[in-house]
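Shipment paperwork, digital attachment
Item: protein structure file
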Amino acid sequence: MPVRFDKCLLIEGKLIKGGKMTYTFKIFYGNTFSNHVENIKRDIEYRINSETEEYILNVNENEYIDHLVQKNYLEPLGFDFENKKVIRAPGDIILHIPYFGESELSKYQPSTFAMRTYPTYLENNMFCFTISNKTNAEDVKNEIARIIDTITDNSRYLSVEVERYNNSLQDFIINKFKARKNKILKEIELLYSLDIPVVKREDLPETFTISPLKNKKKALIKPNPKTAYAPEPRLDDITYYDILQTIHDLGIELERLPNIAKDMDENTIRDLILFQLSSRYIGGSVTGETFNKQGKTDILMKYENKNAFIAECKFWKSENVHKDSISQLLSYLTWRDSKSSLIVFVRNKDITPVIKKIKQFTEEHPNFIAKVNEKSESWINYKFHLNGDKERKIDLAVLIFHVPN
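Attachment content:
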């Protein structure tokens, strides 16, 4: 039977008061908060994956992520028990408890919860509980105490889960955004790495490689891209190995002409390499002693003012100096620089022990990932990662030349 009192009727969870309908529900009971979180995360992932490729590539990454974090952040739900009050209704007592935070959280059951629950409805920023069939003040006080104890326990359990969700939200969004963006970029790179013509879609951003020409709190406004996506110049592997081959061939010539090379210092040898590279490649500029990130790099190939290849020239001195030389080269690299080389000149009379040490200590460097291959005994290709970013991999070739005094 419906519960009826003056100007009020409670039928099937709908409280009708003076012609106004208010929905009642059991507080902290029913649908679990963990399911609610999974639904939120699915919506976030769907939102990111629904953005156009152009938008993902152009939008300010930090602003977009902050926007989604603010939009999906959950304000913890709390109760102001000190300012509770009771209102008399015919035959019943209505307990009113003020709240703060997101009232919707009261509809979800925490993983750990008190078994008891109570029907409630929201009115004037308060949770309202009907206390019926109590004939004396002591019974009413005991019922109010039970309601408060149950709410206190369940809200405490839920607050732990809400805090855990909020703390993980940004990392979740970052991972989903980066996964989408990296997938787009990899698809673009894959298309242009094929040795067959590519039919471009109209919405597919341009990418390009440099080729050698031999013989000369809730700001919920969705961020918008301010500029069109401008892909970085990407030095393809064929050109990269061609540059390394050019340096390698010059180094072999110096080994064959010991009388010429014996008095050369680092700057002189570097200038020879620069001359050879400048005469071999067009479409970009090759410079020496150029400021880049944390210092001056010996050899820097740029394309339209963007770095494409960076190299350092060093004379062999010791194992520790060699490791420091790798660290120095890495300190010059930014996340946009993916191709690099360390060129080592050995003055020692016997080069074989030095080559063994170079190989050993290169792989002992903390940024070392893997050896890719050995083009020759004195040309080894490696994979390293940038300082502070193990996900950002770079190509680093070590070229060794024997130019004794």
